[in-house]
Amino acid sequence: MKAHTTRRLVAWILTLPFSVAGAQEPTSHTVALFPSASDASRQGFARVINHSAQDGEIRIAAVDDSGYGPEPVTLAIRGSQTAHFNSDDLEYGNELKGLSGGVGSGQGDWRLALTSDLDLEVLAYIRTDGGFLTAMHDVVPATGNRHHVAIFNPGSNDRQVSRLRIVNPGEDQAAVTIAGVDSVGAMPGKDVGATIPAGAARTFTAQELESSGLGDGTAKWRLTVDSDRPVIVQSLLESPNANLTNLSTTVDTRRVPLFLAASSPLGQGFVQIRNRSAGGGEMTVRAFDDAGVAREPVTLTIGGGETRFFNSDDLEQGNPDKEGLSVGIGAGEGDWRLEFASTLDIEVLAYVRTEDGFLTAIHDTASGTGYYARLPTFNPGSNPNQVSRLRLVNHGTATADVRIQGIDDDGKWSRNVRASIPAGAALGFSAQQLESGDEGLAGALGDGAGKWQLIVRADQPVTAMSLMESRARHLTSLSTVPFDRSDRAFDHSQAFAKLPVLYNLGDSESLWERTWYRSNYHHAKYAGYDYLLRKHGHHLPSGRGLTILQAESAHTPEDLGSVLHLFDYETHERHARLVAELLTELANYYALYSSYTTYSHQLDNFHAADTADLREFIGDAKNVERYPLTSYDDVAIAPAKLLNVSNTNGGSSGQLVRQFDKLIEENDMVACTAMSSLSSGNWTTSGMSYNSIVVDQFYANPSNYDGAKINDHGSPRDKPDISARSSAGTATSYSAPQVCSAAAVLLERAKVDPRLANAYNSVAVKSILMAGATRFDYKISVGWSDASPAEPLFYDGGWERTSDTRPLSRKYGAGALNVLAAYDILDAGEFDTGDPVGSGSGARRRLLLSLQCR
């Protein structure tokens, strides 16, 4: 066995500036358009999701189109709850919905500012008498103070009237300039200037803009809105039956996930392709039907700065008037998805157009990656007037195994539903099918409270869409999230919240009887799982390509050997079940009471070995270079990269420790093992291992029984390596899988990112987790001593580090698990230090921020 350096450089890494900031500051969320209650045809509808675990209040400030703002009202909301209110509730109040009062009537429509220190997601919609629903939280994208409107009907279209809404949320008037480019890339008129008073909103129709200077263009407009101060811009389209749709969004993709078939009763697919290049050229369009059958590519030409359009009839039946589409591709099975390719800089946007010409944007898809996505709004199956449908598109060449889970308005998670999407194909499921089960689905969501959020996970990249069909058979996409959720500017200094109150416990006090941490768990964000998601969105690892092995007690259920995902894991044995749930994110148990669970939920394989203790698991000295080949019921175990050991009973010996360390090293496994939390002196193998990450829990063990101090090598051994807490219980059994899940995040990222390939090993992962652990506010420390009035991160105030000969705490190891900080360390990657100063050798040295912590 190779020699291991003893935590070298840890004393240095522990001084890295992962400081602790104060509690989260209140955040304001803006709704740019919320109709007045006096609007006879339309009603504003707000959906407010509380992603925090704690209850709280939301301050709602309403400002009408003239800039008048009545006294704000307050909305009470429970932890993890989703609250709703409409235009009537806003103006007249509704105590049943938690609204403290009403704002009264205003002039024109409203914009809203919802402010709270809770982690909120504010979604806004407009609902018509006919049941049509459209998202109003989407706004025109901007670069600085320049806003780009992608599509705007001409003034000659008096049935589908485009409206440009500009909101000035500031305290000074805003001067705006509106420029228009038509579909052939021409600017037939001049710019239009306008002034928006402070706090006010103004709406301009296409006819008003054209008569004010834009002139008469060819086909549709693209607009540019420049302002001398920040404004909010929306591109709206109104039909004669009072339907209003939001056409503000654009997407940065050349894929169209849904293009209706020419025979569809829901309308017609309609695509707009804009050439942002100065020169013209060609582009190819490939069409795939819902069965995954591809048609021969179609080649189209497009001029410099030009915008082209085609619809479902053009694609399937051909159109001699549209170059490149003189011959159609014919009908397919179901609807289509399209893929565009060109050397030109093109923008592709997709819509559904009804028989009367009304447009709804259909290019928006769920936020996240192809492996993990969340849809914020999905109607229940009990609503027959507004039918929600989930569309899943598999762009890949292999079948995608998809798992769908719902979160209802009470914050409760549903059961899982599984579906298989063939390569290249697309499937759709209604809310009723998902809730009750149907052909092609394994399992059912069941009945939830109110509306759903849907979580979609897949082992192959898929695109997810939340579609809604009204009674009039209008189709709209409700897949988007507000801009502040999708592109949040994250302040790293706010990543960690310090416990605001510290208690000094007497020797006779038992932390088991204390309730502070449970009643104030929203302050305990050391793990950083929720902040990791907020910072990096859904572009995160999820355990793909990894196999985890759970070494459990003899109570491990017999069916575990065939388990590929924990969702088939059935047992009433609490310990094994809870550990496994924490390892594989079975949604009932939340990481550190945070609003998000751990991420190792897509593990390729999950196995458990039947071990009363590690003696059985590691075998004898002649057979320790591998773990068992079979599980409890003799099912073959795949090679594992992760090992979790949460059963710590049975004592130990130097021989067992050496065998266990060799097992970990020979297999390069990241082993997360629990210290004993049962009694003093219970020095278990898992709690003494050099090569594993030994985990303690620090809030239910005020005496903090010593871990292993002496082994038969005759030298002291300081453990634990890291601390963590879990909502599943006050024991190290449930802290270890928290760390194991964090390790899965790092391992998968290192595995799939070539830049980080050198971190795909147990040494690097252990080092990074220890380096990222939350410790102490060193800005008010002196040397190795904690200087008064510093506030330590742990309840008893004992960091215990008094010299560089003992850089780790004997109680807490490197500190509390912080997966956000660890992920950011990994994300920084390897750095080229360049030539050593004065060396003249030209040799290049690479520095991997992976410290030898063993």
What does this structure look like?
With 854 residues, the chain is of the alpha+beta class. It has five domains: 108 residues, TM1070-like (Hypothetical Protein Tm1070, Chain: A, Sandwich); 105 residues, TM1070-like (Hypothetical Protein Tm1070, Chain: A), CATH 2.60.290; 107 residues, Hypothetical Protein Tm1070, Chain: A; 114 residues, Sandwich (Hypothetical Protein Tm1070, Chain: A); 318 residues, 3-Layer(aba) Sandwich (Rossmann fold). 14% of the residues lie in helices and 28% in strands. The protein is built from 15 helices and 42 strands. The strands form ten sheets. The protein has a six-stranded parallel β-sheet with strand order 36-35-37-38-39-40. It has a five-stranded antiparallel β-sheet with strand order 9-10-15-12-13, with helices on one face. Strands 26-27-32-29-30 form a five-stranded antiparallel β-sheet, with no helix packed on it. A hairpin with a 5-residue loop joins strand 24 and strand 25. Helix 9 runs parallel beside helix 13, helix 13 packs parallel to helix 15 and helix 14 packs across helix 15. It is globular and about 90 Å long. The N terminus and C terminus are likely disordered.
